[in-house]
Each structure stands twice: as C-alpha cells, then as structure tokens.
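hey so u asked for the seq, here:
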Amino acid sequence: MLSSSLREVWTITLVLLLALSTACQTATSGAADESALRKLDNEWSKAVGAKDVEKTMSYYADDALVMLPNIPTLTGKDSIRTVWKSLLEAPGFAGGWNATKVEVSGDLAYVTGSYEITETDDSGKPMTDKGKYIKNWKKQSDGSWKCVADMFSSDLSLAPFSEK
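ran it, structure tokens below
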C-alpha cells in the first residue's frame, strides 16, 4: 500500500500531466483553427475576385451581419447577397484582401487584414479603394467556421464637406 504522502505526490503528478496534455491539445487545436481560418479567408477573397456571388455567400452564417460604410447594418444572407451581387456585377470591379492577423478563442475567432478594390465611377474612370477589415467567425456545430460579422473601412480620406 502507498503511504498517504506518496499517494498525494502521485495524484499531483497525474493532475499536472493531465493539465499539460490538455494544454498541448488546446494549442494544437488553436493552431489548426488559425490555419483553417487563414485558408478560408484567402479562398473567400479569391471567390470575390472571381465575381462568384454564391461562393462569396457560402462563407457567411445564416444570421450574419455586415457593416459597410454609409449604409445601415445588413442582417441575414438575403440583404448581404443583394449588396455583393451589386458590387461584383459593377463595371470594372476587381479586388480582394489579405489577412494579417488571426486570433482564435474557443469557438470564436477574428481575422483582420487589408483590402483593395477597384470600381468604375459614373464617368467611367477607375477608382481604387484601400482599407482594412475585421471578420468575426464562429465555429458551427459541424466543426466548420462561418463569418458572423463582417466590417471594413477605407483608408482614403473623405472628400471635404461643403455647405450649400
């Protein structure tokens, strides 16, 4: 029979080994999730560059929200699809983005990066916008990741305000 002090040492050792094993599994899972999110974000950018509306929409959760400059928040895939369709079908549209940071915490994550898009203005002249974005992702019950909130802002300065 083990003495009570030896039993305590073994118990503490087993608890520490279990904690270390759990920490290693969590770190491995976090790295795998980070890699998966970088890949998803890159594929999503390529879908936008290819002007594929349905593939673009496939990255959103059903109840996602999108916050674009100068318009009210879009909620749900129908309103989000309408905006993407309009943007991707616009004359002269080209663009995409690159992730610079991915942070994962359990079933939630965010991806930040920079984007560049080009559109044609009303006079037919190309105009390019550059800026930054943040996308919040949530792991779904099937283990896949879906974007639940998407927001971007331009780095271009606003046109001067003029009063009439």
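The CA atoms of residues 31 and 94 lie 32 Å apart. Residues 4-49 form the longest helix (46 residues).
lmk if thats what u needed
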